[in-house]
Amino acid sequence: MIGIRGSYNEALEIKSRVDKFCESIKLKLSLSKTKITSLYKDKVLFLGVHLTRSNQNTYYIMNKYNRSKRQGLQLRFQAPIQNIVARFHRQGFMKNNISSPKFIWMYNDHRTIISLYNSVVRGYLNYYSFVNNYGPLTSRVLFMLKASCCKLLAAKYSLKTMAQVYKKFGKSLSAPSSKKNEKALPFINPSYKMTLKFKTKVDPTVKSTNIVSISPASLQGLVCQVCGSDYRVEMHHIRKMKDLNPKVSTVDRLMAKKNRKQIPLCRGCHMEKHRNNKS
Fold this sequence. Notes:
Order of helices and strands: HEEEEEHEEHHHHEHEH
Strand order of the largest sheet: 1-2-5
Mean pLDDT: 82
Number of helices: 8
Largest sheet: 3 strands, antiparallel
């Protein structure tokens, strides 16, 4: 993408030069994909961000005297909120334009569910931390994902309405602590303030905006309970405690000792466990 402050004829000239340069390195410019457009009329989607120009009549800034000053026509970055909503549908957080519980996470404990949802919120807000519509984006993301989380907790704890969930866990859906000196884990409450700054240091728990590929064990920094490895740690689940066979399996023995239906295992130990189950 090439940004030009100039006339249409100048843009044509630069496009011609780019075409000649591509030919010199044995590449061909795609005429169907290469176009000239104006940011005054159209928004351009680049790396998940809409590029456009500000509206001179409505965009103001504060000057050094703390007075409102009309800003000139500058480049603006905007998060494509409708595209993000469509992605929530594909990821299972929404259905028919309404927040929907992500049932694949239902059998995690309350604290893990909150951690997973918080990481999704952080992922989107960190990626779009520099956009001009950060406030509306934050409001929309938080509203949709918090409702999805609330409905998932309602299904998990057999509560009939979202109101009952909020009454039981509070307005922040806090997961109670299970250890001493451990605080309750609330649903994230981010700032709505627009910063217009790129973030170069991201929370280590945010590995992708597509949280489907992240295991809860990796998200919480757990290690394999068999070999102690922290590489590619996954959660091994069972349906019922009576399915365990502690006399034969080391993993089953550890789960029976902890009285838990899930246990963190590295990828190698996890695959070995399933191979032994098949044999």
